[in-house]
Specification:
CATH class of the largest domain: Mainly Alpha
Radius of gyration: 20 Å
Number of domains: 2
CATH topology of the largest domain: Dehydroquinate synthase-like, alpha domain
Oligomer: single chain
Number of helices: 13
Strand content: 15-25%
Largest sheet: 7 strands, mixed
CATH architecture of the largest domain: Up-down Bundle
Distance between the termini: 35 Å
Bound molecules: nicotinamide-adenine-dinucleotide, glycine
Number of strands: 11
Strand order of the largest sheet: 1-2-9-6-5-3-4
Helix content: 40-55%
Shape: globular
Length: about 375
């Protein structure tokens, strides 16, 4: 895919609330929804009146985000005479489970929330995945709006309708495809995001350029220093282009049935092995994906699909984003065992997202022998 126009396309130098861009997610049967990207949006009643017409709104968030942003969102909703139910979950991936899904549903039952209500997810990917799953199953489905507050959630998890919770035997194993009615991305909230979390979001942005859009990858190479410095104009463009690319792929393969959507998991096969092998939470998801992209690119190079120069470009960009590039020094067999556990492995056969050039990827199995040789070289 080619980047369609010159960049950066927006002048984000002005202050005050405003929308920089709107990206449409177009789905089959006339379904779809807007992604609004801007600054100062969470406090604006007009933003919420545009996407929520329910009388009752269930705002799901966590303790960290509640402290920072819940009061202003609730105040904007109450200005529209909404009945607002607040559900504040403990913070962390460890609480993305059936018990805390139950907490959301219990609160909705106790507040006598009806079928015309809307669940509003205010938080990162953990809150978004859980709130979306609750919206999908409460009374067989109520309205759902995403207000993502981490960079990772703004460029990836809030778009595309994957929702769910973890099971003790596997991550994201229980869930549903359930699309939001709107996504409201307020870039202002990124000012409070810790540096490690910010870099984790950059990993997903690099993923889009490396696997889908050479022009965007080139732009990321030019702009990485500005992005790391959280320059608003650069961030606005990076978020917009990432959302466009995700929207395009989701429109082509909403339920990951053709293999097209699987390309969005570039770096994730190795990354999930690192996350699981080190123990979830030791490396952030985006950190593991960053290193996983370097590993998948190296495998692509060893298979003769990518030039050494291009592999170095991926490694360098991941490093400049503040992400780890050196995989844990485990045996090749350890990696293979963890990767076989991943839910993307079909009947125990691991499939890899490999680069065939910068901005191009394919999804296919590779012989264990070739993967082992590559892993041994990477971890020597
Ligand atoms: P997260 O939701 O745990 O958020 C990271 C941390 O940042 C948390 O401590 C959170 O409280 C804090 N935080 C959030 N917004 C903040 C802000 N503005 N200022 C300060 N702190 C803030 O993690 P994440 O990286 O956003 O999401 C990871 C989750 O997303 C995983 O569970 C993963 O499985 C899921 N995910 C889902 C999809 C999807 O398509 N549904 C895609 C990628 C990842
Ligand atoms: N994050 C991968 C997907 O949404 O399919």
């Amino acid at each position: 895919m080619k980047t369609p126009r010159s960049f950066p396309p927006t002048d984000a130098s002005q202050s005050g609330p405003r929308i920089h861009a709107t990206v449409e997610v177009g789905l089959s049967d006339g379904r779809g929804y807007p992604i609004s990207i801007g600054e100062g949006l969470l406090d604006l009643p007009s933003v919420w009146s545009a996407c929520i017409d329910s009388r009752q709104v269930v705002v799901v968030t966590n303790t960290t985000v509640a402290h920072l942003y819940l009061a202003s969102v609730v105040s904007a909703l109450k200005a529209l005479a909404k009945e607002v139910i607040e559900v504040v979950l403990p913070d962390g991936e460890a609480f993305k489970d059936m018990a805390h899904l139950g907490t959301i549903l219990d609160s909705m039952m106790q507040a006598q929330v009806d079928r015309s209500s809307t669940v509003l997810a205010l938080g990162g990917g953990v809150v978004g995945d859980m709130a979306g799953f609750a919206a999908s199953c409460y009374q067989r489905g109520v309205g759902f709006v995403q207000a993502p507050t981490t960079l990772l959630a703004q460029v990836d998890s809030s778009v595309g309708g994957k929702t769910g919770v973890n099971h003790p035997l596997g991550k994201n194993m229980i869930g549903a495809f359930y699309q939001p009615k709107a996504v409201v991305i307020d870039m202002s909230v990124l000012s409070s995001l810790p540096g490690r979390e910010f870099s984790a979001g950059l990993a997903e942005i690099i993923k889009y350029g490396a696997s889908l859009d050479e022009g965007f990858f080139n732009w990321l190479e030019e702009s990485m220093d500005a992005l790391v410095a959280r320059d608003p104009a650069s961030l606005a463009y990076a978020i917009e282009r990432s959302c466009q690319l995700k929207a395009m792929v989701v429109a082509e393969d909403e339920r990951e049935s053709s293999g097209r959507r699987a390309l969005l998991n570039f770096g994730h096969t190795f990354g999930h092995a690192i996350e699981a092998g080190l123990g979830f939470g030791t490396w952030l998801h985006g950190e593991a994906v960053g290193c996983g992209m370097v590993m998948a690119t190296r495998l692509s190079q060893d298979l003769g699909q990518v030039q050494a120069d291009d592999a170095s470009r991926v490694l360098e960009l991941v490093k400049r984003a503040g992400l780890p590039t050196q995989p844990p020094k485990w045996s090749a067999q350890t990696y293979l065992d963890w990767m076989r556990h991943d839910k993307k492995a079909a009947a125990g056969r691991i499939r890899y997202i490999l680069l065939t050039g910068i901005g191009q990827a394919e999804f296919r199995p590779v012989d264990d022998g070739a993967v082992s040789a590559s892993l041994q070289a990477m971890t020597a």
